[in-house]
Design a protein that fits this description.
The complex is a heterodimer of chains A (about 350) and B (about 130). With about 350 residues, chain A is α+β, with helices and mostly antiparallel strands. Chain A has 3 domains: about 140 residues, Gyrase A, domain 2 (2-Layer Sandwich), CATH 3.30.1360.120; about 80 residues, Alpha-Beta Plaits (2-Layer Sandwich), CATH 3.30.70; about 80 residues, Beta Barrel (Elongation Factor Tu (Ef-tu), domain 3), CATH 2.40.30.110. Chain A has 8 helices and 19 strands. Chain A starts with 9 loop residues before the first helix and ends in a 6-residue tail after the last strand. The mean pLDDT of chain A is about 95. Chain B has one domain: OB fold (Dihydrolipoamide Acetyltransferase, E2P), CATH 2.40.50. In chain B, about 20% of the residues lie in helices and about 35% in strands. In chain B, the strands form 2 sheets. In chain B, strands 1-2-3-9-8-5 form a 6-stranded antiparallel beta sheet. In chain B, β6 and β7 form a beta hairpin. The longest helix of chain B has 14 residues. Chain B is globular. The mean pLDDT of chain B is about 95. The chains are: A alpha+beta (about 350), B alpha+beta (about 130). Chains A and B meet through α7 of A and β4 and β6 of B.
């Protein structure tokens, strides 16, 4: 993708002096003040993110539920209206096409929020596999997505109209009027802190963004960029497509088996998953580690055990909440237990690390 | 353009380092523009005293929360001191890039290389060109 897009919030990012970087074909804010300060704001108060680059693909019609059931690893028919659930789209080999948030809006209407980097791939994948009774509609361009994350999220939103009691509980959604705009409020997120994701018409996004910042100013609510989003999701050990997940990675390897229906199941990729035992000792697994030596692990660094390269780091960063360096990476299952020690090869030097429980923060 | 601080009495490189002459040695650090672009600095890896540097070659790394960047030696020479405070307090590079956040002290082996460094005006122009693009 050579053309760079802008989200509806681009003018707000410029006004708030964001440092913009290209991400998945969009000019996105990396940070406004500092990744560390924005990270701390989310953990202690709240941060407001623009995640409008993510795509919304709507399925409707008498075949919608069944189509989604075949496409997704998570159960769809059992998901009640106005609830959201995390799931994966798999290919025939059991690898991840994308990881998505599924929201059921009605008996025969639902939508998937897919990664920006996988927008075209996921859309084509879905269109090619639904029956004639399912209507697929890409509403990404007309939809903006904001995420207000942190312990102050609920009190701040309640200042824009709704009673606190009217806000949806975790993994539920509700359409509410916020600061004069109709917003689908979803109690979901990608930070490991409580909060909401706010789907709103693109032409109302900027007004909503500013209204939230104004309502939260006294609480220390700040705009937050992709840099803080990445350190926050890493502390929560939430996978990022392209790092922990890709077309060759199964949900079992990634530690996501709780988002997979009982096998054999009737979804794409199920047969391949059933064939690969989850307990195959040769399989690799995703682990979380902390650096015990001095250094910072980064994506693609080698994981070394007894002098041999046994795996690769998928994500790594200094954790602002923990004050130490943490990371995720794939290692052989036999080396995957908590407490296992290995080294991360940092610019030719092997620096000690140890597997710890994930999520890193609770 | 943001209001960066570039002291008049220093020399600079296009890699955003500053050089202060002190007798027959120089002190080296990163500029206000560099520390701003890097963001929160969390790790600095420096050479050891006695190591040699080669002009244009990497002599260490500086890491922000998000990224790793090489530090390029503005001059060839021998390292005579390093800022050991940065091991525990790398944030000093953000807080005081020209004083407490200095990186290394060097005895240049070829004084003629100093002539290739930028005066403050030329450096400011170089930053303005790049800042306009970002």
């Amino acid at each position: 993708m050579s053309e760079t897009h802008r989200t509806p919030l681009y003018p707000a990012h410029v006004r708030h002096e964001a440092k913009l970087v290209p991400f998945a074909g969009y000019d996105m804010p990396l940070q406004y003040s500092s990744i560390r300060l924005e990270h701390e704001a989310v953990r202690e108060r709240a941060g407001l993110f623009d995640v409008s680059h993510m795509a919304q693909i709507h399925l409707s019609g008498s075949g919608a539920i069944e189509s989604a059931e075949v496409l997704l690893t998570c159960e769809v028919a059992s998901l009640r209206v106005d609830r959201a659930r995390y799931g994966l789209l798999l290919n025939d080999a059991g690898g991840c096409v994308d990881d998505v948030m599924l929201t059921r809006e009605g008996p025969e209407t639902l939508f998937l929020c897919v990664n920006a980097a996988n927008h075209e791939k996921a859309l084509a994948w879905i269109q090619d596999r639904v029956g004639t009774e399912t209507h697929v509609e890409d509403r990404s361009r007309e939809t903006a997505l904001l995420a207000l994350q942190g312990p102050s999220a609920a009190p701040v939103l309640s200042r824009l109209g709704p009673e606190t009691a009217d806000l949806p509980k975790r993994f539920r959604v509700r359409r509410l009027e916020l600061a004069g705009s109709s917003v689908l409020v979803s109690a979901t997120g990608y930070t490991g802190s409580p909060g909401f994701e706010l789907y709103v018409a693109a032409d109302r996004a900027e007004a909503l963004f500013e209204a939230i910042l104004e309502a939260g100013a006294d609480d220390g609510v700040v705009p937050a960029g992709l840099g803080a989003r990445d350190t926050l999701r890493l502390e929560a050990a939430l996978p990022l497509y392209g790092h922990e997940l890709d077309d060759t990675t199964t949900p079992f390897e990634a530690g996501l088996s709780r988002f997979v229906k009982a096998l054999p199941g009737g979804f794409i990729g199920a047969e391949a998953l059933a064939a690969k035992s989850a307990e195959d000792p040769s399989a690799r697994r995703l682990v979380g580690f902390e650096m015990t030596g001095r250094g910072i692990a980064r994506a693609d660094y080698e994981i070394v055990h007894d002098g041999d390269v046994v795996g690769r780091v998928t994500s790594g960063a200094p954790s602002p909440s923990l004050g130490k360096s943490i990371g995720l990476g794939y290692v052989p299952r036999a080396l995957g237990d908590v407490g296992q020690e290995f080294a991360i090869r940092i610019r030719g030097k092997d620096v000690a690390a140890r597997i710890v429980e994930t999520p890193f923060i609770r | 353009m943001a209001d960066y601080d570039f002291p008049e009495d220093l020399l600079y490189t296009k890699d955003d380092e500053w050089i202060r002459r002190e007798g027959d040695e120089v002190v080296i650090g990163v500029s206000d523009f560099a520390q701003n672009q890097l963001g929160d600095i969390v790790f600095v890896e420096l050479p050891e005293v006695g190591d040699s540097t080669e002009a244009g070659a990497s002599f260490g790394t500086i890491e922000s929360v998000k990224a790793v960047s090489d530090l390029y030696a503005p001059l060839s020479g021998e390292v005579t001191a390093i800022n050991e405070d940065l091991e525990d307090s790398p944030e000093k590079v953000n807080e005081s890039c020209y004083e407490a956040g200095w990186l290394i002290r060097l005895r240049p082996s070829d004084a003629a290389q100093l002539d290739g460094l930028l005066a403050v005006g030329a450096y400011r122009t170089s930053v303005e060109e790049r800042d306009a693009e970002s």
